[in-house]
Amino acid sequence: MHVDEEKRIDNEVDVVDAEQAENVIGQKAIGERIRRLRMKRSMGLVELGRQTGLSASFLSQLETGRVVPTVRNLARIAMAFNKDLSYFFREDAPVSFRILRQNERVRLQRTLPTGSNFLSENLSTLVTDGSMVPCIAEFRATLEEVVFYPRIFEGIEFTLVVKGTLTLISESETRILEAGDVAWLDAIRKRSYTCAPGEDARAIIITRHRRN
Q1: Can you give the three-state secondary structure of the chain, one letter per residue?
Q2: 8 A C-beta contact, residue 41 and residue 209
Q3: What is the CATH architecture of 3-89?
């Protein structure tokens, strides 16, 4: 192939126009989606700023569309609301059901006070209105017990143990949950789930914030 022909082919390659890319972001109304998520939580810009490490003034500009968010900043906001990044680009058309394949789920390893091996898979992309947050919690066998301390908030927590045995401590009450057992809790209570040393366990935990 001649050099001139190579140059001609290179010149024919389609290049994404920056202005068109910004128009796509604008059409998805990302700023409005951020504002809706924040209002559903009755959360102020300052509080969201503390959770994301972004300034309240910058978040205000995002919501009003005066600035275009970077992927890094958008990811911070998505994590604050337990959302997948794709939430901000999804079509608003109503759907009758959603499927999240196993290989599409993001596995997060959390750092616990004991340094134990605890992983979670957030399934909140299936619930786009933020009404509930489902996840799969996995306790992996270690030489020490694995302890998970859920967040305290006004709402409810529903837990189904699908594998192994977990010890649930809620305030002064202790319960042993085996595979197939279900627990319903007031999420305002301080609580923990513990898996014994050398054992594996898995549970489906669904939380729902109380709406004003």
Answers
A1: CCHHHHHHHHHCCCCCCHHHHHHHHHHCCHHHHHHHHHHHCCCCHHHHHHHHCCCHHHHHHHHCCCCCCCHHHHHHHHHHCCCCHHHHHCCCCCCCCCCCCHHHCCEEEECCCCCCCEEEEECHHHCCCCCCEEEEEEECCCCCCEEECCCCCCEEEEEEEEECEEEEEECCEEEEEECCCEEEEECCCCEEEEECCCCCEEEEEEEEECCC
A2: yes
A3: Orthogonal Bundle (1.10)
pTM score, whole prediction: 0.55
Distance CA 110, CA 135 (A): 13
Residues, the chain: 212
d(CA 91, CA 83): 15
pLDDT digits (tens, 9 = 90+) for 88-129: 877 665 566 778 788 777 777 765 555 557 888 888 777 766
**Rg of the chain, C-alpha, whole Å:** 22
Domain boundary assignment for the chain: 3-89, 102-209
- pLDDT greater than 90 at residue 201: yes
Domain 102-209: what homologous superfamily? Jelly Rolls (2.60.120.10)
